[in-house]
Amino acid sequence: MLYLPFTGNFADSSGNNNPTVGVGGASLGADQNGTPSSALDGGGNGQRVVVTNNGSIKFDSAYTVSLNVMLRSFQRSSFFDMVKDATGDGWVFGVGTDVGNTNVINFNTVDTTGNCSTTVQPSNSQLLHSKTPIQPYTWYNIVSVFYKGVSKIYINGQLDASLTTTNNHVPVCMSSNLTVGGWWSGDPTSINGKLDEVRLYNRALNMSEISKLAQGFPAQVSSTVADLRRGLMLYLPFNGSLADSSGNNNPVQKVGGGGLTYDEHGYANSAYNSTGGAALLVTNNGSIKFDTAYTVSLSVMMRTSQLQIFMSMVDFATGHSPIFNLGTNVQGANNFKFATNDVTEACGTWGDPTAPQQVRDTTSFIPQVESWYNIVCIYHRGTGSVYVNGQLVGTSTSTGTLAKFCSDAQVVIGGWWSVDPESLDGKIDNVRMYNRVLIPEEIAMLATHYQPTSNSIRQTISH
Predict the structure, then answer these.
(1) Do 239 and 178 share a domain, yes or no?
(2) Among 369, 245, 386, which Cα is nearest to 300's?
């Protein structure tokens, strides 16, 4: 009856051509595969897509809802509802999260006492909660099925919860809207996250069909919050080689001198070493892509307090298309800096370092030479945050909300660009890039072997 793939627009692709409109500043972002403008992206501030039923959406004793969802934060939020957007009347069904159960999926179908001209509150007797809690910044396929009084929730193709009631029919209100990403205008409860591949059927899907919708999603839903493999685009552990160990196999090339040396624990050939005039270039093979959020993490030791860049993303040959850089700020000041560009800065140019949509975080933390630090830098919707040894040391907010991304930019380790390299004089280890915001538990995991905001690593180290 309805299919919203969000491939560049909000249109219904079911063949029924139900009219759709974005509300509250609804916009498209990258989907779970990193494809731009391919998922509904909401910030939890009323953004949603409202569908008008042109008469093709009708059902009685059975229906199925399927969607892909990723939440950035847990709050009362509606993924997909049938209700009049203007008044809240004529509520038919809803899928989302609710007060007190914000990290489990709720599926509710109105019983036969529902009235299309009044606001009907969800009934606890009809409300089904998933048993498995979902995790932030993780994509899930959710399928909710109603068939003659039996409601079921499937997560990633696996039956997670079911409920049997005496309600064998659904009182469909033909004048009600279908709302994706929220409930109704008076109480939008919109999501802070993304939705994709929204489907509505006038029947109960079978297991074969449910499994097909869940292809590409892990069958075993993890209950572990922290997962440093999730969203990993690049990983350079320098364990005997310069290779990318993220599984994406982005090519890595040496420029100038530099090579492998002893890491912070004394292990040979386990860190990248540069004495200036050298860098590593990582060519993006298409696996490195992001829009509203990304995270950079690395361990670093400087031999001198000169101006130097630890990691950046830029066209190394020309200096064009700068996306971010992480290093020390200015000669003598020596404090850590994380600078990013917004999507409004055009690719193929040097960019404007004073533009208001930039995030330039010159943190107050001043590192000491010959000391190792773990640094985690996070960009999320215009805000940059810097963590040193697991502790937040600085934040900065710009006027922009989308990160700049240019396909011609390389990831540069130990420098900036060829004419103005600002090369590292020191060592770098365990370089990581994620297409999401790391949660506090993950930031703590990366800083496990470092004293909080100190100038030395822990004495007892294990791998």
Answers:
(1) no
(2) 369
